[in-house]
């Protein structure tokens, strides 16, 4: 990622953390909201405008740069061995997922049957893995980058596919808090790549929304899992009657 992109992403996180929107920025800069969205999308924001936005956020420009540099050193993914160590310890896995979702120490302790000593032991293990810093008073500071992810095809992703995916899809997805969309069509390689970029933007919006609501009390938030997937795939139901040339023209 270029320094310009990293700086703009950091600025967006600062805006979200203070509950500010593009509409607010438009007022500060004397522009339309559409123009502001275009500035952020094209990443063509002058230094003067950056300083104006920072002033409105009570943030020194140097602090914005420092926040960008700190983000660059945050953890983006674990090693294969580190993920395996988490998967192999059910208690550690539970605490790791809680921490990644923004739970505080007391929330983990009260929501699950873990003693304070058990919570502390597992948090210290996560600190050794460099996922967190455990601060005085059992405060947890995550060391995860905004784009942190489990390793593709790694131990935790395989665990999900083996043990959780079946449970996840065992639903009619017809309640207020559920939705399932299955999209099927034909795309070129370029179209497939464009759709994957759209999925990546959706993932960033999901994490941004989680970050924006992280200050709400835990009883006002509930576990929400969203699965975004795309692949070239053809049901085996029809594979035996497909002609050779048709088999190469698989639906997504």
From TrEMBL:
Coiled-coil ranges per UniProt: 47-85
Organism domain of life: Bacteria
Residues of the signal peptide: none
Keyword Disulfide bond: no
Keywords noted in UniProt: Coiled coil
One Gene Ontology molecular-function label: DNA binding
Record's keyword annotation contains Coiled coil: yes
Matching SUPFAM superfamilies: lambda repressor-like DNA-binding domains
InterPro entries, A to Z: Cro/C1-type_HTH, Lambda_DNA-bd_dom_sf
Any Pfam family hit: HTH_26
UniProt domain HTH cro/C1-type: residue ranges: 11-66
Protein name: Helix-turn-helix transcriptional regulator
